[in-house]
Write a structure and sequence with these properties.
Length: 498
Amino acid sequence: MNLNIQNIKEVKSKLNYPSKLFINGDYHKSISENSFDNISPIDGKIINKVYISQQEDIDFAVSKAREAFCRGSWSNLPPGKRKKILLKFAELLERDRLELSLLDTMDMGKTINDTYNADLPTSIDNIEWYAEIIDKLFDDISPSSKEYMGLITKEPIGVVAAIVPWNYPLWMAIWKIAPALITGNSVILKPAEQSPMSAIKIGSLLSEAGIPDGVFSVLPGDGPITGKALCLHNDIDCVAFTGSGEVGKLVLQYSGQSNMKKVQLECGGKSPNIIFSDCHDLDAAAEASAYAIFGNQGEVCSAGSRLIIQKEIEDDFVNKVAELSRNMQPADPFDPESFAGAIVNNEQLEKINKYVNIGKEEGAEVKVGGNIIMKETGGCYFEPTIFKNVKNSMKIAQEEIFGPVLTTLTFSNFDEAISMANDTEYGLAAGVWTSDINKAIKASREIRAGTVYINNYEEGVDSTIPLGGYKQSGIGRDNGYQALENYLQVKSTWIKIT
Ligand code: NAD
């Protein structure tokens, strides 16, 4: 379906707004019937009331997930059969693509162009990729002594809780649930309180695709109640988390306080994007650099938020990025032509504004932007903002703002650029722009980050390529074969040959 205002209006007028818990193949109110107002940042209006999952709901979902795991109707299903069910799920996502896109747009304010043309297709691709590889993987036999045969096999870990953020609501959920389900686990998904609707909706789609009851649940709710109770639950075997470093550290503590469950973390970043003066196409570099911070309203874990530019090209390069930012202003998220939409909520809008003020107090210069805009909509919008004269020690260069705010810094030589790039607690991603292949490879080797983009920045997302962090950006990886490891146990079996 081509995206146009007419079909957006039509599907939007018939939308159901999911609000319930999905447990054991069906939708339920929470046992306490407590709920919260789900507010759209597009206009500040309440969309619906969403139930909050509490301890008793969590116990119910976990018991059903465990029962399903032990029954084996999914965990023991041959991988080729699991594949067919997940491929069917991918087809259903395609069928309901516009509806799911609209739910995410309404919940978190990003544009319909982003949800429909980026988040949904990449989610579908991710499911298809994991479905297609699962029956092509083999276990190992060790080269041990002849008296024994050593089998090294992989088994699903059991019950997995996936706790996800709001910036790509469906997509971040799929990054966890596709590899976790395909490896035979039972999965409980907890969406962010800011963006619960698409997650709740996919409960019924997985049932329709044929996943047995109990194997997949969705528990909407907030972090301190629902998320914490999941992390502390003694019958959950693994928490796969994407979110802030602050909460990531709590998840590790909760694991230690309960059953030492396995923890996988995808946390924040303050990623450097280094522009060497010998880059052959500074226009392309400027365009990618602008997109790397203003795309998705800057609410991107791997956003290129620290632009580190070789001194002699600083003025020209910052001017180019500033010029490009004029076409990256927020506008109506439901208009397929809009580049950017709303910031997720008032709290996040205020946080961005606070950092802009801190930047000014720290002595950085606002080159463009710096303001909350479109107040008349009742929603949350911030204009693309660029700081000049930033020092790497400033808060705006060290802390994750998670909004459309770019800090620009300068360097004189290679070593200074690398040391500035590495001078952060994070290590999620980095960009390097140069025409010198030796310099590019050397930089990639010396930068301590999980992903290094050479002469591009996040141009493609590919299910085959793992994504994750060094340092305080996380533990483990999403995507690629590597993500399967999060959800598998290794079993060694010694067979004596007599
Ligand atoms: P957040 O840490 O506030 O929340 C993430 C999830 O954790 C939500 O579902 C929330 O309800 C839950 N949560 C909150 N408190 C909890 C607690 N005490 N116990 C258990 N769960 C709890 O993050 P956010 O604001 O939703 O998302 C933004 C953050 O996510 C940014 O830091 C961003 O960089 C990061 N992120 C990382 C990646 C990646 O792949 N590395 C991808 C997307 C977002």
